[in-house]
Design goal:
Aminopeptidase; single chain; alpha+beta
């Protein structure tokens, strides 16, 4: 599978990125490269021909307490796992010049496919989780089948559901 995105490197013009959300803008400007170096997250970018960024997302390993999952999911999970392995889609942002053009959806599909491929071949992960920063993000992820986890504001989509997409 060929992905739409590339790993963030110094050749990309991240300082020109502006999505309108300070948390996401500051992350790509100031923290993404450090997270890569420290192995805290991997940042994938969708570049323009001039190496400016249309958008980006981050992935990292995570886990979720089994007791936070809906009963329908809990009942099919092994009882011996207090925490279940997941993939965290930590950030996803689209530059203002490219919003409302389907770039967010393309980035999400790229992230889900990449997460699924890794879970199938390299590192166990039963779902992709997100921690939406606002109501707009909740609506976006709900539209693509993410389920709100009760009590903590996180959302998830099982790898089984992602498999059906591909």
């Amino acid at each position: 599978m060929r992905y739409l995105t590339s790993l963030l490197t110094s050749e990309y013009k991240k300082e020109a990125f502006y999505c309108g959300k300070d948390l996401l803008d500051n992350y790509i400007h100031n923290q993404a490269s450090q997270d890569l170096k420290r192995k805290l997250a991997v940042c994938f970018v969708l570049p323009e021909k001039d190496n400016s960024l249309k958008g980006y997302y981050t992935l990292s390993n995570a886990s979720i307490p089994q007791d936070q999952l809906p009963d329908t999911i809990k009942k099919i999970m092994p009882k011996g796992y207090l925490n279940l392995p997941t993939t965290l889609l930590g950030r996803l942002a689209v530059d203002l010049k490219h919003q409302r053009n389907g770039i967010g959806e393309l980035l999400l599909v790229d992230a889900l496919k990449r997460s699924f491929d890794v879970s199938a071949e390299n590192i166990g992960s039963m779902a992709v989780i997100v921690d939406p920063i606002d109501d707009d993000a909740v609506r976006f992820y709900k539209k693509y089948g993410f389920i709100l986890l009760p009590g903590n504001g996180k959302m998830f989509i099982p790898m089984k559901t992602i498999k059906e997409l591909f």
